[in-house]
Amino acid sequence: MSTLLIVLSCIIALVLLISWAKLNPFLAFLIVSIKAAILLGIPMDKIPATVQKGIGEMLGSLVITIGLGAMLGKLVADSGAAQKITQVLMRTFGQKHLQWALMVTGFVVGIPLYYNVGFVLMVPLIFSVVYQYKLPAVYIGLPMLAALSVTHGFLPPHPSPTALVTQLKANMGLTLLYGIILAIPSIIIAGPLFSKTLKHIRSTPLQTFQPKQFAADQLPNAANSFLTALLPVLLITITTIIPLVIPLSGTSQQFVLFISDPNMVMLLSLLIATYTLGLHTGRSMKAIMDIYGEAVKDVALILLIVAGAGVLKQVFTDSGVSMTIAESIKGWQIHPLILGWVIAGMIRICVGSATVAGLTAAGIIGPVIPQMHVNPNLMVLSIGAGSLLFSHVNDSGFWMYKEYFNLSIKDTIRSWSMMETIVSVAGLIGVLIMDIFI
């Protein structure tokens, strides 16, 4: 059986186990991953190590962020801060333009913030609007998530675009400038415009983020609410800017690198929030810890599902699937920018990780960039757009969205997967238009 057929059969099996057999997604991932490992030729005695590595690497990068983010989100909701933030947004933009307000917030937050961190931080804000104003969750939330996704795939300092700039010998500043120009129409098309077709999707988001309704005099003030909720964003932005304007070395450099790590940012933010939205507002430490305990219970299953997605991704990585696919289409006679997009897109669909897709595609395209006579900054964006193509069941982002919004697989594909695909295609079209003028 060819590699592509094996990958396709595994993806079909995963969908059937979850949607038809009603198997827990974590168990389905384990079963399908082991099947894939055997069919793709990984020695049977090596499969347990691949499973453990997949879970370890995925959770190692996400468990602290998701856990602490859930605690912060639960505290923001239960303290009344989410209600206060929503009131301010509604007064400023009005209910008619609330989608656009959330989209702009997602874009600004998404530039300095790693995607998973931004997702965990912004979802409570989305849900507070949904519950308070009885608006459709997918319709309201997708524009903000589209903005987060675009910044993750297109713009430095995110891991994949930053690495692509280096690999393809592009210019960081120009890539960021072109990326912002490209991002704006892509987000508008995949966000507010596309979400108009999704108002009928029924979603009951996780109850952990449903804010209690407080009387006006019981709410924290607006400054406390916004600063505490957005403190992780502010910390990462500040620690990103400092090295650019102040030369650092030795202990000061080590401190900034330490404090800028997403996990450290989340921990520090939660400790500060424990005081500003907890102790400072009259709650006891026991009451605050009870809130945190409930938050962790609510995201435990999400962590297991994301871990399962990590196993399947690791199987595909260890078996060399991404390189096999990339090599098989490298010789296609098409426009270089389209070729980069296609390679990244194929790997993304099969492997699930946008970062893996982008870096693998760059490894194939990079050595032949000089012969292609193509702008390397645009190639970074083309590959970045391709790496976002059709997120589905082997992508941790797919499962985070599905579980947080409590959707069926069908509705997740109808909304999330299509949004990612629109972003990807719009990005490619934008790159090709820019190529005419640059």
Automatic annotation (TrEMBL):
<dbReference type="GO" id="GO:0015128">
    <property type="term" value="F:gluconate transmembrane transporter activity"/>
</dbReference>
<feature type="transmembrane region" description="Helical">
    <location>
        <begin position="255"/>
        <end position="278"/>
    </location>
</feature>
<keyword id="KW-1003">Cell membrane</keyword>
<feature type="transmembrane region" description="Helical">
    <location>
        <begin position="413"/>
        <end position="437"/>
    </location>
</feature>
<dbReference type="Pfam" id="PF02447">
    <property type="entry name" value="GntP_permease"/>
</dbReference>
<keyword id="KW-0813">Transport</keyword>
<feature type="transmembrane region" description="Helical">
    <location>
        <begin position="337"/>
        <end position="362"/>
    </location>
</feature>
<feature type="transmembrane region" description="Helical">
    <location>
        <begin position="299"/>
        <end position="317"/>
    </location>
</feature>
<protein>
    <submittedName>
        <fullName>Gluconate transporter</fullName>
    </submittedName>
</protein>
<dbReference type="InterPro" id="IPR003474">
    <property type="entry name" value="Glcn_transporter"/>
</dbReference>
<keyword id="KW-1133">Transmembrane helix</keyword>
<feature type="transmembrane region" description="Helical">
    <location>
        <begin position="97"/>
        <end position="130"/>
    </location>
</feature>
<feature type="transmembrane region" description="Helical">
    <location>
        <begin position="137"/>
        <end position="155"/>
    </location>
</feature>
<feature type="transmembrane region" description="Helical">
    <location>
        <begin position="226"/>
        <end position="249"/>
    </location>
</feature>
<feature type="transmembrane region" description="Helical">
    <location>
        <begin position="27"/>
        <end position="44"/>
    </location>
</feature>
<feature type="transmembrane region" description="Helical">
    <location>
        <begin position="175"/>
        <end position="194"/>
    </location>
</feature>
<keyword id="KW-0812">Transmembrane</keyword>
<keyword id="KW-0472">Membrane</keyword>
<feature type="transmembrane region" description="Helical">
    <location>
        <begin position="374"/>
        <end position="393"/>
    </location>
</feature>
<comment type="similarity">
    <text>Belongs to the GntP permease family.</text>
</comment>
<feature type="transmembrane region" description="Helical">
    <location>
        <begin position="56"/>
        <end position="77"/>
    </location>
</feature>
<dbReference type="GO" id="GO:0005886">
    <property type="term" value="C:plasma membrane"/>
</dbReference>
